[in-house]
Write a structure and sequence with these properties.
CATH topology: Porin
Number of strands: 9
Number of domains: 1
Largest sheet: 9 strands, antiparallel
Shape: globular
CATH class: Mainly Beta
Length: 167
């Protein structure tokens, strides 16, 4: 149980609940989650509690990780959401400093005339660069989204981590 600390808005008093259970056998992990939270603020179209349930699976072996999750619930009363994702993260010795990723997503948002059904596909890579830098590049293609959202995007990033080793 916890109390949200949203910086953008003030939630009404009360606790939110999150329950997570998971188990594993060898390289396979299976989990289930439940979340119940009060909205950050009551709006005419968005009242009532948020509730989501999810089931996820992860498998990893020899530099390949496969993951997926299915989620269903509601962000507020009179709206429902259901969706899933599946991805693969691959880092084999022959790839050197590069890690590849591919992901597909589906999200159905049922809210009367405001319903939409976005789908998204992403392909990406991350690589170690000299002097401790990490480079990232992702290509994302979406469809079924509201018109105001961009359909294809390319994200490029550069990060650096400062680490102190234990003595």
């Amino acid at each position: 149980m916890g109390v949200p600390q949203d910086p953008a808005g003030r939630r009404r008093p009360g606790l939110g609940e999150v329950v997570r259970v998971q188990g594993y056998r060898g390289p396979l992990i299976v989990g289930a989650s439940y979340m119940h939270s009060r909205p950050s603020r009551e709006l005419e179209f968005a009242s009532g509690a948020m509730r989501f349930t999810g089931i996820d699976v992860r498998w990893m072996s020899h530099g390949i990780q496969l993951r997926g999750e299915w989620v269903t619930g509601r962000p507020f009363l009179r709206a429902a959401t259901e969706g899933w994702y599946a991805d693969a993260i691959i880092h084999r010795p022959a790839m050197g400093p590069i890690t590849a990723m591919v992901r597909v997503e589906r999200l159905d948002y049922f809210a009367g005339r405001f319903s939409f059904f976005p789908r998204r596909f992403a392909l990406g890579a991350r690589g170690r660069l000299p002097y401790g830098f990490i480079g990232h590049v992702n290509l994302t293609r979406g469809w079924g989204t509201p018109q105001r959202l961009r359909k294809t995007s390319v994200d490029v990033g550069l990060s650096y981590s400062i680490r102190e080793s234990a003595r």
